């Protein structure tokens, strides 16, 4: 199955800065926040790869799958900056470093990201 993915660098806000108070686990497609580029539309994604755990205040490189057919994800191009939202709350900021169409081959849904 062919799917669209982005690789991004994110900075997770601390609880004191309005972000999460607990870590999240980017592998396996369980974490499904929304991204927003500027004042644009909320874009549904699922994190599918990255470090085992990302704590508040941490920086990480992650891979996200763009979830919904028919949604315009064209703003998520390399170099685009975005916020990560859980409902109305901004929990992280990030920058897109790559975008690719990949065939999902791993059981977890994580793509084999080519170098």
Task: Describe the fold and architecture.
It is a single chain. With 115 residues, the chain is mainly beta. The protein has one domain: Translation factors (Elongation Factor Tu (Ef-tu), domain 3, Beta Barrel). Helices cover 0% and strands 43% of the residues. It is built from no helices and six strands. The chain has a six-stranded antiparallel β-barrel. A hairpin with a 2-residue loop joins strand 5 and strand 6. The protein is globular, with a radius of gyration of 13 Å.
CATH-defined architecture: Beta Barrel
SS field, number of helical segments: 0
**In one word, what is the shape?**
globular
Distance between the termini: 20 Å
How many β-strand stretches? 6
Order of the strands making up the biggest sheet = 1-4-3-2-5-6
| Sequence stretches where pLDDT stays below 50 over 5 or more residues | none
Oligomer: single chain
Number of domains: 1
CATH class: Mainly Beta
CATH topology: Elongation Factor Tu (Ef-tu), domain 3
Secondary-structure class: mainly beta
How much helical structure, as a percent, in the residues? under 10%
Mean pLDDT: 89
Rg over CA atoms: 13 Å
Strand residue content: 35-45%
Order of helices and strands: EEEEEE
Report the sheet with the most strands, covering strand number, pairing sense and barrel closure. Answer: 6 strands, antiparallel, barrel
> CATH homologous superfamily name?
Translation factors
């Amino acid at each position: 199955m062919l799917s669209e993915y982005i690789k991004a660098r994110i900075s997770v806000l601390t609880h004191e800065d309005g972000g999460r108070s607990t870590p999240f686990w980017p592998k396996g497609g369980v974490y499904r926040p929304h991204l927003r580029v500027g004042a644009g539309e909320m874009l549904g994604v699922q994190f599918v790869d990255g470090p085992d755990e990302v704590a508040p205040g941490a920086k990480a490189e992650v891979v996200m799958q763009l979830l919904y057919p028919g949604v315009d994800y064209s703003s998520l191009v390399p170099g685009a900056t975005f916020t990560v939202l859980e409902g109305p709350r901004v929990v992280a900021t990030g920058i897109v470093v790559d975008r690719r169409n990949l065939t999902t081959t791993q059981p977890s849904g994580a793509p084999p990201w080519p170098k």
